Amino acid sequence: MSFYVYENWTAEHKAVIHQGACRYCNDGRGCHENPLGNRNGQWHGPFDTREAANNTAVQTGRLVREHRCV
């Protein structure tokens, strides 16, 4: 199992931990076409453990939460 962090710096200024298989994460590709690139945020990972993903999420300095897929 892999984990990813989506760091969003425009909406809610948060870092959300996802499982790689989550349909919203899609192994760090997200669920939407992204013509803006990293303008709104970026994916970090993959991480082998939830703890490693959490450490990266905390390092962003943003509000950290886990997606319900975790």
Describe the structure.
This protein is α+β, with helices and mostly antiparallel strands. It has one helix spanning 50-59; strands spanning 3-8, 14-19, 41-47, 63-66. Strands 3-1-2-4 form a four-stranded mixed β-sheet, with helices on one face. The chain is globular. The N and C termini lie close together (11 Å).
Task: Describe this structure in a few short sentences.
The protein has 70 residues and is of the alpha+beta class. It is built from one helix and four strands; from the N terminus they run βββαβ. The longest helix is centred in the C-terminal third of the chain and has 10 residues, at 50-59.
Helix count?
1
Shape: globular
Secondary-structure element sequence? EEEHE
Strand content: 25-35%
Termini separation comes to 11 Å
Mean pLDDT: 89
Supply Rg. 11 Å
Reported for the largest beta sheet, the result is:
4 strands, mixed
Label this structure with key terms.
single chain, 4 strands, four-stranded mixed β-sheet, 70 residues, alpha+beta, 14% helix
